[in-house]
Write a structure and sequence with these properties.
There is one protein chain. By secondary structure, the protein is mostly helical. The chain folds into three domains: 3-47; 53-93, Arc Repressor Mutant, subunit A, CATH 1.10.10; 98-148. It is built from nine helices and no strands. Helix 4 crosses helix 6 (86-93) and helix 5 runs antiparallel to helix 6 (86-93). The chain starts with a helix and ends with a helix.
Length: 149
Amino acid sequence: MTATDILSKLERYCAYQDRCTQEVLTKLRSLQVEGKEAQQVLQLLKNDGFVDDERYAQSYIRGKVGLKQWGKQKIRMSLLQKGIPKELIDKYLENITPQQYTDNLQASVRKWTQGHGPVTQENITKLYRHLISKGYTYEEIKGELKTEN
């Protein structure tokens, strides 16, 4: 595969959805492109605007909050695993309005209760575990459940 073919393939890969640097490097490895050549291709993609970690972080957070109703903890950990700098993550997590965050937590509780029935002493541990797995902190959950009762 020529350098032009590789670049073209990665441009399509990045145009399909936002990609972070780590995802592009993984794709390059899967195409058996490594070392200096991989860095050159990555730099070309960055220069042409196909790869932008800041834009990626922003759209990732917007999607996970808006569609998946994830909490900040899960989003932060996921982005850190993708090699996104902590400062960038914190910058865009601050853009989540407290109202939107509370609405998402309330919606997650409502959705859980639809499938499991009302929150009782017997199933409250399951609810906490579910919400913690979605990235909400114990304190946030506790505060929300106090306001629900």
